[in-house]
């Protein structure tokens, strides 16, 4: 069997990128990709709701939830107090009772306040229950480096969460990734952590039909 050379692989990769761009329906920012995907999933399934700090009236710290309050109302787009431990516990409890919460953090640095719920409740319960209790929840928000917000707001938590049995961890780069991953995360019957890069929210990428 022949081995593909590095140059052949590079050519194949370039060709794939050209095809993806050629058949792209539109250019879309990562922010709008996330927003449109959540909108579609909330329309598809009435069990899906979003909660977090400033996700409703303010439309999200990075405007990812823009327009969802007006469309779905305050029962499904829920502003919470500034207590990550509290609203994460509410979200996990809702997931245990058959709903599909999207738990948004202003930044994943603040999710450290709620790590007990994420790890000891959401991630472990499927194993501890012998596969009988699912926790269909999506934890999402900005992660990693940003500009001018100091060390407390710029950590990358990918390796942390990836080391936890029971959690699926995804990190979208472009708009196509963002739409696909958030939809898959919402529909998953077990917990998913979606780490979004703050510096990419306003970047545009092609999105296929």
UniProtKB/TrEMBL annotation:
Cofactors named for this entry: thiamine diphosphate
Keyword terms, alphabetized: Oxidoreductase, Pyruvate, Thiamine pyrophosphate
EC number(s) reported in the record: 1.2.4.1
Catalysed reaction equations from the record: N(6)-[(R)-lipoyl]-L-lysyl-[protein] + pyruvate + H(+) = N(6)-[(R)-S(8)-acetyldihydrolipoyl]-L-lysyl-[protein] + CO2
Gene3D superfamilies: 3.40.50.970
PROSITE patterns referenced in this protein's UniProt entry, alphabetically: PROKAR_LIPOPROTEIN
Enzyme class: oxidoreductase
Pfam families: Transket_pyr (PF02779)
GO biological process: pyruvate decarboxylation to acetyl-CoA
Keyword check for Oxidoreductase: yes
Region forming the signal peptide: none
Molecular-function annotations in GO: pyruvate dehydrogenase (acetyl-transferring) activity
CDD domains found in the cross-reference section: TPP_PYR_E1-PDHc-beta_like
Occurrences of domain Transketolase-like pyrimidine-binding (ranges): 28-203
Chain's role: The pyruvate dehydrogenase complex catalyzes the overall conversion of pyruvate to acetyl-CoA and CO2.
NCBIfam families per UniProt: PRK09212.1
Protein name: Pyruvate dehydrogenase E1 component subunit beta
Organism (species): Lygus hesperus (Western plant bug)
